[in-house]
Structure formats: C-alpha cells, structure tokens
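Quick one: structure tokens for this chain, please?
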Amino acid sequence: MERQVVKIQFPAFLPKQEAVRRKILYDEKIKVAGFIGGRYSGKTWAGAHIAVEYALIYPKSLILVIAPTMQQTEVARSKIDEVLSYIQTEYFPHSKIYRSYRRVPREYHLFNGSKFVFFTGANPQHLRGFHPQMSWLDEASYLSEHTFETIYLGTVLAGGKILFTTTPRGKNHWLYRVLKENPETTYYVNVSSWENPFAPKEAVEEAEKISRATGNYIQEIEGRFTEIASTLPEFDDDNIVDINKEEVLEYEERFSNFVIGIDWGWTAPTAMLVVCKEKIKTKDGEDKERIVVLEEIYQSQMLLDEIAKWLEEKIDEYPIESIIADSSGSIYINELQYKYGIPIIASKRSEKEESLVKLRTLIGHKTLVINRSCVNLISELEGFEIDPQTSRLKDEREYHCVDALRYALQAYSAEELTLLGSSKSLRKAYSIGSYMVSLGGSSEEYARNEVEKLFEEEEE
C-alpha cells in the first residue's frame, strides 16, 4: 500500500506509546501490537491517535474499531472523533475532512478514502466478511477468544494489523497466551497508571485504594498480567449484618433495586437469593451504597410449584425489579413465565472469571453484606476457593448460593458495582467521560479544569 505524507503535528507520544505507534505504522513483521495498562494510563487516547494516523498515512484503509459493549465502543468512537475534530479545526478549518454516517454499524468516511467502522464484539458473526487493513480492539481482554479469532482471521491473515488497548486479566487468559506464543509477530508494553503524567492524581489514588482492597492492584494499577488469586479477599464479620424484613419494608427510601437470583437444582439444592441496594452513611458522614443479600432459600428436590410459590411471595413482599436464573434451566424459565406469569429472565453466559472479579471487588471493599440469616451463602463464601490455573471454582458443585448471587449481580452493571464504595468525586467524575482518562489535544485543558472543579466541590 502506497504511503502518503500528511503534514499534521500530532501531540507528543510518551515513550511506550511511541514504541507501539512505530510497530503498528512501520514494522512489517509485527502483526499484533498494543498496550497492557492500568486504569488512567492513557491507553484509549494513544489507541485513537494511532488509529487516525494510520488512516491518514495509508489512504483507502478500512479500520474496524471494536470494544466489548456498546458503551465502550461509543467511548472509543468519541476519542476518534476528538482527534479528527482537532485536525479539522487546526489544519482544515474551511473544508470537511470526514463525514459521519449514522447507520448500523456506524461509519466515518475520511477525505482520503479511509473508513472507520465501529462494532461491539458481542456477536462475532457480525465481524465475518471484513478484511480491514487495521483493527483497533479497545479493552481487548474483555472480548471473547472467539471474537478475537474472528478478527484475527479477517485482519492479520488478510495482511492487516491489530492494535489492542486493555487492562490485563489473568495469565490463564487467551490474550496472554496469544502474546507469549507468538513473540516474532506480536509486541506489547506494560504501562502503569502512574506513568501517565496527564492522569488526575486524585483519581489514580482512589483507583489504587479500591484495587488494593480487592486484590486487583497488579492488574488495575501496575497494568501487568498476574496469577489468579485462589481465594476471595478476607470475608469476615464486616460482611455480615443483621437486617429484618420489617426494617427493609419500613424504610423504602433506604433500600432499592430489588432482584432475585436463582441457581437450579434437584438432588443438589436449588438456591434463591433476594438482593438489593442499601443507602448508608459512613463514619465520616458521606452517603454511599452497598449490595445487601436479604434472604435465601436452599432446598433439595424443590418442585416447580414450590419455587413459583416462593417467588410469588417475594414479589408481594418486595418491589422486585428483575428475577435472573441460570440459563441452563430454560425449561423451568419458560414454564415459570407462561404457566405462572412470573417475569423471569435467563442469565447471561458471562465468563466465570469476570463474575469472580465482581465478587472480589464487592467483598474486598466491604460493599457486599449478607444478612446473618443467609447461613448457606455465608458458609460457601467462607470456604470459597479458586483454581489459579483455570480461574474456576475448585468444586463448582458446592457453590449454589454463590452462583445465585452471581446471577443476581447481573442486574447491576460492572461500573455500577465498582463505584459503590468510591468517593463522591470519583462517582461524579464518570459523568464527564470516565474522568477524561484519555487526556490530550484540545480536550486536555478542559479535562483538567473539570477534574479540579470536582475535587473543589467535594472539599466545600
């Protein structure tokens, strides 16, 4: 493909960002390159700038931008938009250098024939048939291996390159294996949160505090792959509370977002939990929220009539917003829906590791508490053990209440759960674009001002 000189001054890259930039733009041997970084390390900022520079240097390039969810894809698209808008304003004020097409998937068409197409990685089938010159995978470690394989076949085997930016997961993860098994054609750098001079200091300190409490410091802050911990953070009396039903029903403004999680059984027990959010005040007088497990039922050979009766009782007692059950019991789900009229939905087939990370975060930061009456769930969590090689529970047959809790937690987003125990400033910061973590270009001054305002408000 013929190269074209574009006289545009991009912001200066940090040394590690520059190394990846050169591998993607100019090293023909490297087919997959990217950033393994901590939170606020500038991964997405660098990814967007490299993707745009590639599109400008190589005319008529097709570039796919892919992230795990619609929201994350929109964040990546907004960063591409920032870079293109900056170039438009600074270098081409009187002409349009790109056009946005609000089709599905969304597309950006550049003046030189290059094109960006934005996807989520939820359905790999939608990515078949594309042969891009480059694919940028943001938060790549949260894509499935099947999705990566589909992208790899369409991109690298067709002569293109893959740029990835992500916070790492365990050494058992497919991304770690891909990078270690193909050293001749892959390249990556580890970037810690503190290596980005533009990252808001207070935000990184807050993230560091959370990650230390939950045992995710090496991944979330240092930006390095690590072994999967074999246990949860310490589960102790701080995670156990005494709450009676009358108290919950009396203080409606304090308790909200009620959900039920179900793990099916017959010879093994069926486990069902009632879970909700609770507003609390800390010792410092700050308002926070936590997840509370209010009730459990744990019973073998439980008939569908008995399950339906228990669910109907809970629907009458609490303002239940959703009931989420193990998707493997589709027959039970259908019958409860159509025979009993109970609005139950199947759980998402999320990876075990991701669900365990959620539990680690909640328990470690003391934002998950369990009513003392839920003796079976407490017993399971006290004996909780994970196989470091597979990230799975060592004996999954013994964790029925934990599975029911995992399904219930699907009613709350990962971001929502992460922020439960965070300071007011960090929670508010998410409303201005994930704390403007990708600082640079024309947005840098604005982002710094917004960050300063947040902490000034909290101090007042």
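The chain has three domains: 15-220, 237-418, 428-459.
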